[in-house]
Structures are given as C-alpha cells and as structure tokens.
Amino acid sequence: MATDLMDAVTEQQLAILGGPKVITQHEKSLFHWPIVTEEDEQAVIAVLRDGSMSGVGITKQFEQEFAAWQGVKHALAYPNGTMALMTAMWALGVRRGDEIIAPSMTYWASATPVLGLGGIPVFADVDPKTLCLDPADIERHISKRTKLIVPVHYAGHPCDMDAIMAIAKKHNLKVLEDVSHSHGALYKGRMVGTFGHAAAMSMMAGKSFAIGEGGMLVTNDRAVYERAALFANYERHTEIVTDPELKPLIGIPWGGMKGRLNQTAAAMGRVQLKHYPARIREIQAGMNRFWDLLEGVPGLEVTGGVVKVAANMMTGHDGIFAGGDMVPAERNVTVGIGHGKQAARHIDAWLRGEKHVPAPQHEVANFEKLNPWYYADAPKTVRPMLDIIRRQSTFDEVQGGLDESNALFEARRCLSCGNCFECDNCYGVCPDNAVIKLGPGKRFEFNYDYCKGCGMCVAECPCGAIKMEAEEI
Ligand SMILES: Cc1ncc(COP(=O)(O)O)c(C=O)c1O
Ligand code: SF4
Ligand code: SF4
To answer: What pLDDT is stored for residue 1 in this prediction?
Structure first.
C-alpha cells in the first residue's frame, strides 16, 4: 500500500515544478460562508410571502432562543452589530463627554459608536499573543470620565475576563463585551458575553454566527434591557419597559434611531441557531484534526503551536515533514508559503529516495552591473483594501488582486539583479549568433565556438546576468 502510494506520487512532478495541481477545488467553494440550506431559504421565503419583514413576532422568538442559548435573561436584536454596540453603550450610561476604553486592535465599531453619543474612545494595548485587550494596560487609561470598558474577544479568543471584571469593580466601571468574533466561545468553561454588564455582537455574513446583516445585545440586567429598548426600539416600549421611572418616557426613540431587525434575517437566525452548536463542534474538530492525528507520534516536538523541524523540514519522526506556518519562523503568509514550498521539495526528493539540494545561488549583481535605463517607471497599482476584520473572513482582497498584465507592468520596476528575465537583449546584440534561445522560461545558452568575446551582451544585459570569463587555453 505504502509502496503503491510512493509509486503514484513519484511518477508525477510536483505542481511547483510543472506537475498537476493536487487541489483543484476553487477557493471560493472551499471557503464559502455562511452555510445556507433549504431550511434557511424556506424560513426567509415564508417571511417574504407573509409580508412580515417589518414585524417583530419572529424577531422576539429569535431573541428568546438566543438568550436561552447564550444563558442570559434578555436579548434584543438589531439590524447590525454597530447599532447593538451603540445602544448598549447608551443603556450602560455612557453620555456626552464620557470615555470608554477599547482595545487598540479591533474593528472600529467596538469603539466608535461612542462618538455618536458625544463620548470619547480611549485605546488600550492588546496582548500580542491573544490580540485581546491587555488588562495590564487598562488602568493607566482610566480617568475621571471613564465609564466603560469594551473587551473584544478577538478572532475567537476569549479576553481575560477575571482580570477585566476585577479592574471594573475596583473603579466602578461598566463592562460591555464585544462578542462579534466569538459567538459561543468559552472562558473558563463559561460562554463569553455572560461576564460583563452587557454584551453586543455582530451577525453579519462573515461572522461565525451569521444571519446576513444583524446584531444582538444581551444582558442579565433588566434596567439595561429596558433602557436599550428606549434607545432605538420605539415600537416595543410598551412591551418591554416596566420601570415606573422609565414609563413616562415611552413612545419616543431616545437615541433618535430605529433599531428594528428585518425579520427575514431573524428567520434565518432561528434556523442558524438551531444548527450552530453542532456546526461549531464540527469546525473545531476539523481545525484540530491534524493535531489530533499527530497526537502521541514519537519524535514529534511541538512547542507553542509549531513543530520542530530539521533543515530538510523533517520532524523528529522519520518521514513526517512540516512546513507552512507550522514551523518555527515568522508566521506570516509570505514566509508560510516559502516554507510550504521548501517542505514540498524535500518531501518530493525523500519519496524518490533522493535528497533535495537547493540550486546554487548565482553571484549577486551589484548596481554597477545593472543598466537601470532599461527599466520602466511603472507606478504601483493602488489596490482596494478591505477592513482588517473583513480580511479575516474572506479572501476577496487577495483574489481581487492584479491581473496578469498589471502584474507584468508592475514587475518592470524590479531590477531582477543577476536573474535573466528573458529580455532578449543579448540575443539581439550578439553580432555572431552565439546566443541561443532555449524557449520561454528556459533562458539562453552560449555557443562558445561562435563567440568572439566582444562583451556586447554583458554590456547590454540590464540585470547583470552575464559574466565574461577569460578562456583557458
Ligand atoms: C469586533 C467587531 N465589532 C463590531 C462589529 C460591527 O458589526 P456590524 O458590521 O454588524 O455592524 C464587527 C464587524 O463587522 C466586529 O468585527
Ligand atoms: S560576447 Fe559578444 S559574441 Fe559573445 S555572446 Fe556576447 S555578444 Fe555574442
Ligand atoms: S541574459 Fe540579460 S540580456 Fe540576455 S535575455 Fe537575460 S536579461 Fe536579457
């Protein structure tokens, strides 16, 4: 079996060397999100047919089910997370001139809704390991005007809620958790969104819990819930507000906003919620699958989420290699791709019973050897950039990149020091037809029987890729 596999593998060239691609599925179908089934479609169609998009009955059911799942007393749905956050800030008592402390790295809506209330966002550092608000940096930002701390459970990672709640208690501050990245994540076994005085979250299409566009505010505090309803849910004041002090205020949207969720999204939300726990369990199992398979393999050394490898990218276990961002190095896309490529070459050689020897590096061509006149002033293309949070949930920015002609144009700025890029200059200037073209991508060969050593090719090569050497006679 193993031999069959080795034969099958060694018959073919690696894709990076011109062989067939192993993965042919398109990225779009691999990373399509959210999961929408016929059940979602039917639920949405029912709302459309019923014409109840602006109703609240289905939204109320969604809120109740969401509150029960989240383990809180109250939930209020919104058209987006930004609105839920703003409402929660107001309901927690943030007013004009007040300050809130938010993490310095997050989507803007964790902090900026406070501007609409006349308040001021103040940014504290994040922990470089978790990317969550660093409790050690919060206190130095607390002033007389601070009212609220907004921890964001960033990219699925829970904040250190014990430390944050202790600081809030000490300074008599409120805590609003932004759960937009972490629906259902646990901190010490308890779901995030249940620690602060309230939590708010986005449910837009790129989030793990996604209903298209939508937001949710959750709280155990009835006073916060009632105030939130006053802010932007005017049509539900009589249903929600019970506090005698607030009752005279009903009927007026105190935030000057309308926060009603379109019921097509609420209907989809109910279906999504029904399947969400099972789906996250499955995704988690998928994320851990490779690590689980490697559990207990002798010789494998894993520290801090990366695997120790030798120079040939082989782990301490013969025949198991690692690459990409699983090996100790900078964990960014460029380095990850480079290490993936390196590992692929070593694995290929190992399967063939060979050793991969990297091609020798050519001599570095210094500036004197270059002909800069040859290169074009090819200005950099300005590519539209997505917001950092959108980048985490879609490949649109990467896929919306340069087309071939743009990329080739931009590449004209590269001096390609010492690397022949097949400009044909040497071929064109050689008076003795001594330069032989080998075909696209294969560069050139020199016929030394014809070459008289005039040096024209060397002088005209833009990138210093040709070197004259004295002939030994
Ligand atoms: C951390 C965080 N907070 C708030 C928001 C705002 O939510 P929405 O886009 O639904 O208004 C988002 C996402 O978009 C987010 O990622
Ligand atoms: S040195 Fe002169 S003759 Fe020789 S290959 Fe270059 S251009 Fe041709
Ligand atoms: S060796 Fe230099 S001049 Fe000749 S094709 Fe390559 S880049 Fe052009």
So the answer is: 40
